[in-house]
What does this fold into?
Amino acid sequence: MRPRIAVPLLLLVLAVAALPAGAQQSMVRPASNPTAASATDRMIADEIVRIVKAQWQAETVKDLAAATKNIAPDYTEFNGDYATRIEGRDLAVKLEDAGFKDSGKQLVGEMINPLVQVYGNTAILSYNFVGVTQDKDGKTTPTRAKSTRVYVRQGSDWMLVHANFAPDPLPKP
It folds into this structure.
């Protein structure tokens, strides 16, 4: 009787333990054959995700140079804070620097359901962002967003040429 309970219980524990890790791994969808990602496409996907996470780490410690090093000069961005498209690296860097003056901080931020679509020298990353911020008084607030980033290989570097950061509000009851 013990083995009958132990095996299904073990399988359930293993399945549950595997879920968070699987949800965090980047998925690759190549342009030519959506069902079979090449090793190169997987390496590109891993590199793109690594670049974003390095940017987030740099933002956490307010390192402007590191946070903006992969932004292309002709970068464009849509986001929920501004009614118009942000044009150019210079403006994006100014806004990033101003954001560093905020007394609040990001306590945690995670990329959920990342998908990288590879088209030769172009890679499109889409994901959900979840995190928690803390204001100067210590109050914490959950954050959610739907994000898309477009990278183009320029020389040996992957450069961010466009991003769309959209709020992901809670559903209304």
Observations:
- The longest strand covers residues 105-119.
- Strands lie at 27-30, 71-79, 86-87, 105-119, 122-134, 140-154, 157-167.
- Residues 128 and 146 are 5 Å apart (CA to CA).
- The domain at 25-167 is CATH 3.10.450.50 (Nuclear Transport Factor 2; Chain: A,).
